[in-house]
Specification:
Helix 10 packs across helix 11 and helix 15 runs antiparallel to helix 16. The protein has 412 residues and is mainly alpha-helical. It starts with a strand and ends with a helix. The protein has two domains: 133 residues, Receptor-associated Protein (Up-down Bundle); 244 residues, Type II secretion system (T2SS), domain F (Receptor-associated Protein, Up-down Bundle).
Length: 412
């Protein structure tokens, strides 16, 4: 009967290694699971070197579609690993199987390194923590929670759902803003064409007539002359201002002031606030539902919310919760969250369904942002068309006024 070497962890995360005789790997896995152990790896003792050689050979022959690690790569990885773990496959075997299917060269290398770290005795989340540019703090802490509870497959499924929701929400925002952006670019292009190409043609035509040009025509010709002569200076100035702005926003103080300004904008302030609350509620629902303690969930969300103003608010909320204060009173004290959010969190705390309440908050703000973008797009089109019509109309009138004047002189 063949002998197998195994690596497993108990409910406290303690590493357990050993070897046993069995008819198959599945039999060893079943035995370990009956002992309430999380199976990390099971390998035949005599075939370990052959398996390593096969992995190396497969890496050399692979052709990859891209180098970096995309959001889709991570979603597919979490779904596949959850399915494999749910079917009783060990983590190391699952990583081996998935690494043979990934489309990213970098991600393939990361998965190979994860296997080596785990074979050396690290847990899954400890191995992942060595690649912070690939796996975020949210990833690492959720996996740690899943390993501790012995329910890693379910946690990975929740993580995949979270990543899919974030990606879908991001795509909706981009697609909603795409049409207004294209319309604005086309409009600006048309105005530049009229200013730089058409108006100078009329200006040359008017030079042949000994008439005084109307004020509107003179102003348009001067603007056209300035644009043609100083176009590179204008572009350079805009680029320089944009560069300075980007550098300023990257500083801690600049970023905070810029985000505070976003929240104070007349029409878009509530929209930016909703985006931040939506991400906060989405992360909190996933973390708490996966078994991460409330205080730890707030700490993870603080670092993953991508907004310095919101991160500072969460930091204060975290301190209040550490002192024993209810979460809903801390949210209310911040003055950032609407009463509806505070009330729903209070109900969730009272009935013990805080993750479900955060999910409902997340759904509400997703729908709000989508509705806002739909209305903004519907309003932007006629406003932009009216604005363009007025500008082009002024240009047409300004260019044809001298023609009417010349016609009147010729008729007299």
């Amino acid at each position: 009967m063949p002998k197998f070497t195994y690596i497993a962890r108990d409910s406290k995360g303690t590493k357990i290694t050993g070897s046993e005789e069995a008819s198959s790997q599945e039999e060893i896995i079943s035995r370990l699971q009956l002992r309430n152990l999380v199976v990390v790896n099971v390998t035949p003792e005599l075939k370990e070197e052959a398996v390593t050689a096969t992995l190396q050979a497969s890496g050399e022959q692979r052709r990859f579609r891209h180098y970096g690690v995309t959001g889709d790569d991570l979603v597919i990885f979490s779904r596949q690993l959850a399915t494999l773990l749910g079917a009783g496959v060990t983590i190391l075997k699952g990583l081996d199987i998935i690494s043979k299917q990934v489309n990213s060269r970098k991600f393939y290398n990361v998965l190979q390194e994860l296997q080596k770290h785990m074979e050396a005795g690290l847990s899954f989340h400890e191995a992942m923590s060595k690649y912070p540019n690939v796996f975020s703090e949210l990833w690492i802490n959720l996996v740690e929670s899943g390993e501790a509870s012995g329910n890693l497959a379910a946690v990975l499924n929740r993580l995949a759902s979270y990543l899919e929701r974030r990606a879908a929400f991001k795509r909706k925002i981009i697609s909603s803003l795409m049409y207004p952006a294209i319309l604005m670019v086309v409009g600006i292009g048309a105005l530049l064409f009229l200013t730089i190409k058409i108006i100078p043609t009329f200006a040359e035509l008017f030079k042949g007539f000994n008439v005084k040009l109307p004020f509107l025509t003179q102003m348009l010709i001067q603007i056209s002359y300035f644009m043609r002569k100083g176009i590179f200076g204008i572009i350079g100035t805009i680029a320089a201002l944009f560069f300075i702005f980007r550098r300023y926003v990257k500083t801690k103080a600049g970023r905070k002031r810029f985000e505070q300004l976003q929240f104070k904008l007349p029409l878009f302030g509530e929209f930016f606030r909703s985006l931040v609350v939506e991400k906060f509620s989405s992360g909190m629902s996933t973390l708490i539902e996966s078994g991460v303690p409330l205080l730890y969930s707030l700490e993870i969300t603080e670092h993953s919310v991508s907004n310095s103003v919101m991160a500072g608010i969460i930091r204060k909320i975290k301190e209040d919760v550490r002192e024993g204060k209810p979460l809903n009173s801390s949210l209310d004290k911040s003055g950032f969250f609407e009463p509806m959010v505070v009330q729903m969190v209070a109900i969730g705390e009272e009935i013990g369904e805080l993750p479900q309440m955060f999910k409902r908050i997340n759904t509400f703000y997703e729908e709000y942002t989508e509705t806002f973008l739909a209305r903004f797009t519907a309003m932007f089109e006629p406003i932009m068309l009216i604005f363009m019509g007025m500008i082009i109309g002024i240009m047409v009138v300004g260019m044809f006024l001298p023609i009417f004047q010349i016609a009147q002189i010729g008729g007299g």
